[in-house]
Design a protein that fits this description.
- The protein is of the alpha/beta class.
- 43% of the residues lie in helices and 15% in strands.
- It has helices at 11-25, 42-49, 66-74, 89-94, 101-113, 131-143, 163-166, 175-187, and strands at 30-32, 56-59, 77-85, 117-124, 152-155.
- It has a five-stranded parallel beta sheet.
- Helix 3 (66-74) links the parallel strand 2 (56-59) and strand 3.
- The longest helix has 15 residues, at 11-25.
- The two termini are 31 Å apart.
């Protein structure tokens, strides 16, 4: 996760490696499947890569600055996958997200304004998610429908060492019902 630590590679080496892959395979688009593109080297990477004129996509936390988003756009980034998770600030806080709904909304709109497709992931069925909090998530999606063409939707699952697992909590009993309702909303 975002606080687990990572090792950043030198942007010049990454761009050189990508250039070789582009020359070899001539992809229509490539996707950075790394945990996140957030980091101290992002601006340098974007600056180094912008001359390649290759579209690309990546994963990021929803706390990129306007300068970083502008740099992503200029480098050819067309798609950002990020964890929205819920439309409820309490659920986000309970899951140690570190980002609130107002920031998520700003992030989505800023990406969209920079011609970068926002692709949020959402989970339903957090252990203590109330019906009202689920409704906040559906309202958030409806309020942002003009900005969202792709939504990654998941039933809430816990890893064995997560705080919820250690507290012996389980996903909400209505998870599958809520998942079906959210799928229906997203399809519409």
């Amino acid at each position: 996760g975002w606080n687990a630590g990572y090792l950043e590679r030198e942007p010049e080496k990454v761009v050189k490696e990508l250039s070789m892959l582009i020359d070899t395979y001539n992809p229509r688009m490539f996707v950075c499947r790394d945990n996140s593109i957030n980091g101290a080297n992002l601006l340098e990477f974007c600056s180094s890569f912008k001359n390649h004129n290759n579209p690309w996509a990546a994963m990021a936390r929803a706390d990129l600055s306007d300068k970083e988003i502008d740099s992503l756009q200029r480098s050819g980034c067309q798609f950002i996958y990020f964890g929205l998770e819920s439309g409820s600030d309490r659920v986000l806080s309970e899951n140690n997200k570190g980002i609130g709904i107002k920031q998520m909304s700003r992030f989505i709109r800023t990406l969209y304004d920079h011609d970068i497709m926002p692709a949020p992931s959402i989970f339903v069925g957090s252990p203590d998610e109330t019906e009202g909090e689920f409704e906040k998530t559906t309202k958030f999606i409806l309020d942002h429908k003009d900005y969202l063409d792709i939504i990654n939707l998941y039933p809430y699952m816990m890893s064995p060492a997560s705080d919820f697992s250690l507290m012996e909590k389980k996903p909400h009993g209505n998870t599958l019902t809520r998942l079906k309702r959210m799928i229906s909303l997203c399809v519409d």
